[in-house]
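Lecture 7, part B: from sequences to assemblies.

Below are the input chains for today's worked example.
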Amino acid sequence: MFNIALFGAGRIGQVHAVNIAKHPKTKLYSIIDPYVEGANKLAAEYDAQVQSIEQAMADPNVHAVCICSATHTHADLIELAAQNGKVIFCEKPIDLDISRVRDCLATVRKHSVPMMVGFNRRYDPQFRTIKNQLNAGVVGQPESLVITSRDPSPPPAEYTKVSGGMFRDMTIHDLDMARFIMGEDPVSITAHGSCMVDPAIGEAGDIDTAVLVLNFPSGAIATINNSRRSGYGYDQRIELHGSKGLLQADNVKENLVQNWGDDGCVAAKPQHFFLERYEAAYIAEWQDFVDVLEGQEPECGGADGEFALVLADAALESMKQGKTIKL
Amino acid sequence: MFNIALFGAGRIGQVHAVNIAKHPKTKLYSIIDPYVEGANKLAAEYDAQVQSIEQAMADPNVHAVCICSATHTHADLIELAAQNGKVIFCEKPIDLDISRVRDCLATVRKHSVPMMVGFNRRYDPQFRTIKNQLNAGVVGQPESLVITSRDPSPPPAEYTKVSGGMFRDMTIHDLDMARFIMGEDPVSITAHGSCMVDPAIGEAGDIDTAVLVLNFPSGAIATINNSRRSGYGYDQRIELHGSKGLLQADNVKENLVQNWGDDGCVAAKPQHFFLERYEAAYIAEWQDFVDVLEGQEPECGGADGEFALVLADAALESMKQGKTIKL
Amino acid sequence: MFNIALFGAGRIGQVHAVNIAKHPKTKLYSIIDPYVEGANKLAAEYDAQVQSIEQAMADPNVHAVCICSATHTHADLIELAAQNGKVIFCEKPIDLDISRVRDCLATVRKHSVPMMVGFNRRYDPQFRTIKNQLNAGVVGQPESLVITSRDPSPPPAEYTKVSGGMFRDMTIHDLDMARFIMGEDPVSITAHGSCMVDPAIGEAGDIDTAVLVLNFPSGAIATINNSRRSGYGYDQRIELHGSKGLLQADNVKENLVQNWGDDGCVAAKPQHFFLERYEAAYIAEWQDFVDVLEGQEPECGGADGEFALVLADAALESMKQGKTIKL
Amino acid sequence: MFNIALFGAGRIGQVHAVNIAKHPKTKLYSIIDPYVEGANKLAAEYDAQVQSIEQAMADPNVHAVCICSATHTHADLIELAAQNGKVIFCEKPIDLDISRVRDCLATVRKHSVPMMVGFNRRYDPQFRTIKNQLNAGVVGQPESLVITSRDPSPPPAEYTKVSGGMFRDMTIHDLDMARFIMGEDPVSITAHGSCMVDPAIGEAGDIDTAVLVLNFPSGAIATINNSRRSGYGYDQRIELHGSKGLLQADNVKENLVQNWGDDGCVAAKPQHFFLERYEAAYIAEWQDFVDVLEGQEPECGGADGEFALVLADAALESMKQGKTIKL
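Predicted structure of the full complex, as structure tokens:
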């Protein structure tokens, strides 16, 4: 049984708390959160203890950390955990600044601590099926990837200021997905963005609508279609066209009931947002981290977190300059 | 070029007029209809002549008749055509009375005239695909057939009085379809009906909602689900379950556009009614009749028209007696 | 926290063990199974104790029983539990003999013990959505219900001898579903069956292919399409046609990925069998039982178990006599 | 009745011949083709005459020309027709050279002759439904358009040399579609291409796989996904995301039958190629030209043909320079 110290008792921390507690090989050992009330409540629910950062890092009973705290604390906590020999699970991103990310990863490497970055969508059963079928040769060589990724509704414009912008906050998932599916790293990126959903987002210096194009060494091309608002729930789809055919992962709907009536044939909307849509992914992701705890190489490690941020930064540069950025 | 005399210038006559005129091997030679204005109009549109029944039957230039007149005139016209050596296409039914049907078919046989009965759905590309795939062994031996057949909205209660009732008027198509798909004749039939759509239909002695079960010598079972009203267009589907799997023919929708929005994912309704849904079937049916004109054995002949009526009559008997009728 | 004594450590017992253990309000307290090795193994896995029937029934710490043992033991265990004041969850069927069922339910009533019968499909999110939408008036008054229910592959012919036959063993779920959806009890039933899947099943006196028709007081008609073998996984669908339209619950597929290639567009099969297909239903069912433990009236009680068996018996009678059986 | 002179008796000429002949208001008056045998054959089939270019242009009975000849002859024939006062229908492109296009259109304007360019996909019922629903406000303001357009299999590498390259030959349809759907002209274009299907195409200086991004004044963004080979038929889809939701036009399949079996649920492939997929579009397009003959303004005129070529040229430039081209 591995004891897990959970940093952050907010929305995503609670998702991991459930999965840590339900997994037969992990125990939710302690909760760390500056918002004491939240920490206490979550600890009570799972019969865990509340610790300070220092206590958790120094506690020899803590085998691993699960970092779900505010973004700007990630890199510091990663370094502390590495220095204290804790295995690390960290929610994306490692940091919004690429040099800070690199310093942090150097520390992790120095201490030879296994680290996994939480790009949860890699574990989604639909997208994983596409990856597996690609690997099994079902569609031959990949030629064209289309990722559709739209949030149900935009965050407050305030949030966009601290989020690092749409590319670093939202698109970063899709950039990682493109690398994951294609199995190679892009050689260039071109980004286009505009503000169509909420003028306040534009005034805050961000965009809410974007298209990105990634070129791969094989000649394959990936496109990412992003919006901060769908109007119909969480739109998460992937199409992979290969030399022998096409793989499509459609949205997961709230239910499979169709209603034929005067207005046509009405099916349910996609599941509303990431908690529902990626529930199974978060469970599979945690299983993967347990495998890391048991000695397996992380499938999605620090370098993946770094590369995704490099791509997000390059996308921003491309959009500003109106040209393709070579990587 | 075969000259066709068309009896009946109404809705279904007009469907055939188009197809006769467009087919490179048939010419719409003449129109016969007691409603002279309708006959004149249709004749003008296709550059055809208007004839009386006697003229058409006696005209050596008429190679074949296409009988689309009122139901009660079918048997007489068939006999006249047979006596005059015309090849016969007749819309279903031959007659609503089975003994009249048998007399009429005896006359046809006596004169050795080829005759085709217009069970148009046999020529629907979707259902034909099911038949072809069954024949190709795709699902093995047929075990269970489910026919769903609902009209968009009920006819006036008045109509049900002259139509011979729901089984003879509407279900007869599905009864023929069951024989067509299964490729064997049922050994028994059980029918259940009720009046749920329009009380006036019940007062007129008819039903508007029905389920029929047909048992086949092989042990296979077919069910027919009927309603005089769907609420969403013309519902025409078939499911065939065999020893190796399932074949499903879904409805043909008005278009393939889906609209994802606040109310869910909305697709178009099925095509409204038989003119739209079976447009391709009517064209293919006419091609088949041209093949008959050129010497091919009719795929759907007088005996098929007779058998379908036998089944409809037995269904009525079953419903009245509340028990299975052996055939 | 309610302590649950689980009778039966087999396949279905294990399904409930997981859900009992995961539910925050129930504890898997003890396992009872004549096959000691199985009981020990399951008890070890969940940190539960192994008890004899007598020990469990006498143990004041046991709040409720979950009966998942062999069918022929159900009625005895129910009566013992009732006599000992335990709240009862029992897998279907109560018994295969209707008079034994009635005696047993009389005992339960005498002791005023809440009892729930495990018709798990009522809790399936898809079918529940249909029921909810019907209740919300989405399709108006129900007129025609079509239940498709096919197992992926037949049981050994040996099993059919102890199962009470297809209607009592398999169709009973669909009979309960028809009552559940329609919200009224049928007034007559007509059943048709044949043996098409495995001749050994026929030699054992059973059928493997069936169609049943249920007539309701309102005039509505339900049909059930059954087979012991699908060739493509577990086929579990419902269609409800009402005065204003149609509700369809499609199969739940193994995944949502489509592969377009030379052979067409290939989607995944339905989830293989009931453990996968009804995983969510079993969880919701257990939640409902927890509500019963907390004082709520059981949604699906002894009378529902009794009525389903009455229908199965009547179906058998109908098939034998070749006529509709009034209820 | 309008008499039509058809230039070109090849594949696309034959498509128009059928539609000209079937339309009640047009007559296939004459065929003009340097390949005399082809012209004779087609003329015989439709009871038309064979003419030379000069005869057709001089013939006062010819009301309009339908230009389906080799691409390099289009501009000359358009000018001749304009000078002779014939109404003009011309297959795309007007010419592969933009200055020749502009000269040609100047001639047409000078003679005030109505001219329609054959971007057939505008008339596809699926895409037209999207346009109509957008106009009806169903999805609010357009924000993101995704066009998927893949041919079933690549042309011979030889062909790419005379075709003007993939953008001018194939993508030009999608460029026009983007303008048609969005209802505004793009302000910039970025193109990415590679050769993944056939190395011989690359050696001939062309590409076979491409992604294009178009930016519109409103901030909306369109992407085009192209390939010369799909592996599953003709892939022609459109997705339009707007401020209130999404419109999707799926592929038109060869049939609507699904086969559930051991390999999953298999549906038919998309209709193979443009003759099948756009059969209805060609008929609607011809109807639109008849409306032009009767005095209506062409919906898709010379300026549309010119703009599509400007976009294709800019796309080529963008790909070569690796940057966005402002328009």
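Note for the exam: Chain A has twelve helices and 15 strands. Keep this in mind when comparing with the next example.
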